[in-house]
Amino acid sequence: MRIDDEILAAYVDGELDPADKAQVDAAARTDAALARRIQAQRRLRETLAGAYGGVIGEPTPDRLMQAVRSGAPRAPAEVVDLGAARAKRASREAARPRGRRWAQWGALAACAVLAVGVGLRVWRGGPSGQPVETAMVSGPPGAMVAQGPLAEALDNQLASAGPGVDPVRIGVSFRSGDGRDCRTFQVTTSEGFSGLACRQDGAWRVRATEAETVAQAQSAYRQAGSETPPAILAAVNGLIAGQPFNAGQEAAAKAAGWK
């Protein structure tokens, strides 16, 4: 049995079927390198799960809750119904044997899941207090670039500084195997989604996204990234070199303008 990153992530999450889990257990008892990979994967899980610590219990800003409750209309043309797409995907996941779901993770991480050809949009409070549509991502699938509030957060927000009121939450930052700075994020509005972006050619290229339903977006603001979607975790696991940045490394990377 070849134990690749997707199988390893599924093992740590308890998603393997008993037969596959037994094979990994047996291999880890005799393979010190594999045992170290398992421990590293568990540490990465813990880091990602705790990346937004301290947000639980915060009151949700009125302007964000107003946008969620109002059911503000989407732009009529190119915007995908993220909730419907997620529901459709969830029904497919429910029909798939639990122990084999890990096999799809690589495909989820390899592309921007639920990517929108011309832009993901959210709603922010405008000068009059009413929700205003704001584009977060633009570009075709496979070449999406962060813009607007998402680009601002990726440029300037330090996860180590704690949460603010921005609709974007930064999770973990790390350096990829090809030397690029990458950051996970969560958009906590009614059109919420999580994702991973890496610095390239002076912009943040979105490498993976995972959409949320409206109900999840409401709760996500209070739980703020306590559970990183499998697609994002798999993408991180496939790119990261070493460990995620600590507070000092994150601040230094920002001061250097990100690589």
Q: How are the secondary structure elements laid out?
A:
Blueprint (H helix, E strand, L loop, with lengths): L4 H8 L5 H13 L1 H18 L12 H9 L11 H14 L9 H6 L9 E6 L5 E8 L6 E2 L1 H9 L11 E8 L5 E7 L5 E8 L2 E9 L2 H10 L6 H10 L7 H9 L4
Antiparallel strand pairs: 1-2, 2-3, 4-5, 5-6, 6-7
What would you say this structure looks like, in words?
This protein has about 260 residues and is of the alpha+beta class. It has one domain (about 5-255). The chain is built from 10 helices and 7 strands. The strands form 2 sheets. Strands 4-5-6-7 form a 4-stranded antiparallel β-sheet, sandwiched between helices. Helix 2 (about 20-30) packs across helix 3 (about 30-50). It starts with a helix and ends with a helix. The relative contact order is 0.17.
Defining traits:
single chain, 259 residues, 3-stranded antiparallel beta sheet
Strand content: 15-25%
Number of DSSP-assigned strands: 7
Cα(first) to Cα(last) distance is 37 Å
What shape does the CA trace take? globular
Order of neighbouring strands in the sheet with most strands = 4-5-6-7
Offer a quick outline of the entry.
The protein is of the alpha+beta class and about 260 residues long. Helices cover about 40% and strands about 20% of the residues.
